[in-house]
Design a protein that fits this description.
single chain; mainly alpha; 0% strand
Length: 170
């Protein structure tokens, strides 16, 4: 379909915070086997851009860019003390470790995130937040509908219809 091995692996990596490491590792194993069967040189170039020291700050910056600084700062401030570590991990892990990687732009990473969340079902609050985030980075309502339409055979009608209901009118 024209995707490069790097685009394929980055798409899989982008799904990790949402569908879990084990599922992504299984998919990466299959992708790597396919790449090797096609004589694609492995390993692929590393796309990481953060260090342990910079991942939180860079992730928080990306979160603020996507969702708005006021929204993210209010969410962080509203979290109870016992959940502050989750907010920090969300910034460092989801956004620092993944959204800052190379190859895919922010629009594509946010579209992948939306599809991954919608494929799980039962995550409508997160799906609504990421539908709005997609619009904020330049994806359109039609692009979101088209993406979920492509997911439909794999996620089923209930999840696809729930996903579409999460997409605001522009």
């Amino acid at each position: 379909m024209g995707a490069t091995p790097e685009q394929i692996t980055e798409t899989l990596y982008q799904c990790a915070p949402y569908i879990g490491l084990e599922k992504v590792q299984c998919a990466l194993d299959e992708a790597n086997a396919a790449f090797q069967s096609m004589n694609i040189s492995m390993p692929l170039p590393n796309q990481a851009t953060v260090t342990e020291e910079t991942r939180f700050a860079k992730g928080l910056a990306v979160q603020r860019e996507i969702f708005g600084a006021d929204t993210i700062d209010a969410m962080r401030a509203a979290a109870p003390d016992e959940l502050q570590h989750i907010q920090a991990y969300l910034s460092a892990y989801c956004f620092g470790d993944f959204y800052t990687r190379g190859i895919l732009d922010l629009k594509m990473r946010e579209l992948i995130t939306f599809c991954a969340i919608c494929s799980l079902g039962g995550c409508e609050p997160q799906a609504k937040a990421h539908a709005n985030a997609n619009l904020s980075v330049g994806n359109t309502r039609q692009q979101l509908i088209d993406a979920i339409t492509q997911c439909l055979p794999f996620i089923g009608f209930p999840r696809a219809l729930n996903a579409i209901a999460c997409i605001p009118n522009e």
